[in-house]
């Protein structure tokens, strides 16, 4: 792209490229200008308008999460981040002018000075890639898109219908199970209160301190335990662990595993008990039997 500014656009052919752009809405006047300049440059390089996917997130803290979600789908030739950082800090947080507050975190509403657990989770930059895109089933992809959609709902309080329409236009959605995505997004949003009531007693901290990513994964797990009886509880648990590994904090999947394992015992007691009995028999079976 820098070469294009030096008169070498003829060396680059973007006609077949699929590009994703993630823009932070914090300091929107600046990031809008950055996005428009980036879009104009891409079009000048031959990238088709229909092959440019534009995603916005509340602030710079959420940009890595969105980038990782898009990268996991393996549908883009390149991903671009457009964001503007603020260097202000709360008093006593190190740097900045006394009495000036830094920007609010889009994930929890807190200022950027304190290093609460919520902030640490939101600032995770490059979660581990746990499975290849080619190995993902349509339902796995649906869960990934649903998590991205629920994240937008939890962080931005956007309406489910608006998020639904936006998500279905994203590159790669055609590979997902759209019916399962629809059930997860609209079901979790509609039953949010009931799902939180189930989950809260199993947490070791207030729900407000759970990161939006982990919160969304827990919603998906709780919803599938209750409403998707055709999906074995082990499959639900393992899929949610993979979601947390891919998009959450470093050890977030361990927390999700612990909470959902306890919830499964409540909502799918016979299934969990049967699995436990089978495992005990297998452990007692003599070698070579």
Question: What's the short story on this structure?
Answer:
The protein is mainly α and 289 residues long. It has helices spanning 2-5, 28-44, 63-72, 117-122, 138-156, 160-168, 178-190, 192-199, 212-227, 233-247, 252-267, 269-284, and strands at residues 19-24, 52-57, 78-82.
Description:
α8 (192-199) crosses α9, α9 (212-227) packs antiparallel against α10 (233-247) and α11 (252-267) crosses α12. The protein is elongated and about 65 Å long. A 3-stranded parallel β-sheet has the order 2-1-3. The protein is mainly α. It folds into 2 domains: 2-7 and 17-135, 3-Layer(aba) Sandwich (Rossmann fold); 138-276, N-utilizing Substance Protein B Homolog, Chain A (Orthogonal Bundle). β1, α2 and β2 (52-57) form a beta-alpha-beta unit. The protein has 12 helices and 3 strands; from the N terminus they run αβαβαβααααααααα. The protein has helices spanning 2-5, 28-44, 63-72, 117-122, 138-156, 160-168, 178-190, 192-199, 212-227, 233-247, 252-267, 269-284; strands at 19-24, 52-57, 78-82.
Number of domains: 2
Q: Please write the string of helix (H) and strand (E) elements.
A: HEHEHEHHHHHHHHH
**CATH level 3 topology of the largest domain:** N-utilizing Substance Protein B Homolog, Chain A
Secondary structure: number of strands: 3
What would the average pLDDT be, to the nearest integer? 77
Please give the radius of gyration in angstroms: 21 Å
Oligomer: single chain
Uncertain runs are: 1-10, 85-130
Number of helices: 12
Q: Percent range for helical residues?
A: 40-55%
Question: What can be said about the biggest beta sheet?
Answer: 3 strands, parallel
Span between termini: 63 Å
CATH architecture of the largest domain: Orthogonal Bundle
């Amino acid at each position: 792209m820098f070469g294009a500014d030096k008169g070498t656009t003829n060396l680059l052919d973007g006609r077949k490229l699929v590009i994703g752009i993630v823009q932070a809405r914090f300091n929107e006047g600046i990031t809008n200008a950055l996005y428009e300049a980036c879009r104009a440059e891409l079009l000048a390089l031959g990238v088709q308008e229909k092959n440019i996917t534009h995603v916005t997130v509340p602030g710079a803290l959420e940009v890595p999460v969105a980038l990782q979600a898009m990268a996991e789908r393996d549908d883009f030739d390149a991903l671009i981040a457009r964001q503007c950082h603020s260097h202000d800090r709360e008093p006593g947080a190190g740097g900045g002018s006394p009495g000036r507050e830094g920007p609010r975190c889009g994930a929890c509403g807190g200022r950027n000075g304190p290093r609460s657990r919520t902030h640490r989770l939101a600032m995770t930059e490059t979660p581990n890639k746990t499975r290849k895109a080619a190995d993902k089933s349509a339902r796995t992809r649906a869960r990934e898109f649903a998590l991205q959609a629920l994240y937008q709902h939890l962080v931005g309080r956007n309406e489910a219908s608006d998020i639904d329409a936006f998500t279905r236009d994203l590159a790669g959605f055609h590979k997902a199970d759209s019916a399962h995505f629809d059930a997860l997004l609209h079901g979790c949003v509609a039953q949010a209160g009931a799902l939180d009531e189930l989950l809260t007693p199993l947490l070791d901290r207030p729900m407000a301190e759970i990161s939006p990513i982990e919160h969304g994964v827990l919603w998906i797990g709780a919803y599938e335990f209750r409403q998707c009886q055709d999906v074995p509880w082990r499959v639900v648990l393992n899929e949610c662990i993979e979601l947390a590994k891919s998009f959450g904090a470093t050890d977030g999947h361990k927390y999700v595993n612990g909470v959902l394992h306890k919830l499964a015992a409540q909502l799918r007691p016979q299934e969990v008990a049967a699995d436990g009995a089978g495992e005990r028999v297998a452990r007692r079976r003599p070698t070579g039997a």
